[in-house]
Design brief:
Length: about 190
């Protein structure tokens, strides 16, 4: 498996060097992210190598944001969300929060359930991982009750998610409300 990974890694590096198109770089970053995820294809990757792949994915996404020009405009929120996840997995809490803040700066995305769920997951993971007690309490309090980012944008936390979802999840029974009910119960369990 290591030889196959090494060969594929060389291939990805070559694609990243040769092709500066956003689509190609997105594919490279997404592939590195999948390899670093520990799930699916990434399940065969040793943990230290997985962290390396997540770092490469993050670096590639950052390059896309910096050099992609107008072409990445519609992709920017998705790229920022991928960076929130990658940096959370790497324990780079402030970098992750910075990208979350970038997403929440768009008023159209401030109420997006996926974004707010990522925010609560990030704050919970940070609170569980940091060794400084005061910082851990601050992160966990934010994960539960919500908090504001350094840019002043609101992250709802699990309590805010549960509150907002309860209004939508228990109305008329549809496929969407079934999904919302599942998210509601997940948010309540995290409290």
């Amino acid at each position: 498996a290591r030889a196959l990974l090494a060969g594929f890694e060389t291939f990805l590096e070559g694609v990243a060097r040769r092709d500066s198109k956003v689509a190609a770089r997105m594919w490279v970053a997404t592939t590195y992210r999948a390899l670093g995820s520990g799930a699916g294809t990434g399940a065969v990757v040793p943990p230290d190598k997985a962290r390396d792949y997540l770092g490469r994915a993050a670096a590639t996404y950052e390059t896309i944001l910096q050099t992609g020009g107008d072409e990445i405009g519609p992709l920017a929120p998705s790229i920022h969300l991928k960076l929130v996840s990658a940096y959370r997995s790497l324990g780079r809490w402030e970098d992750s929060l910075g990208h979350l803040d970038s997403i929440l700066a768009d008023p159209r995305l401030q109420n997006a359930l996926d974004v707010q769920t990522q925010g609560a997951e990030l704050l919970q993971a940070a609170g569980e991982a940091v060794t400084d007690r005061a910082a851990a309490e601050q992160y966990l309090r934010g994960a539960i009750a919500g908090t504001k980012t350094s840019g002043g944008r609101l992250v709802w936390g699990w309590g805010g998610l549960a509150n907002r979802l309860s209004r939508q999840a228990f109305g008329e029974v549809t496929e969407q409300t079934a999904d919302l009910r599942s998210r509601f119960f997940t948010a309540r369990l995290k409290l």
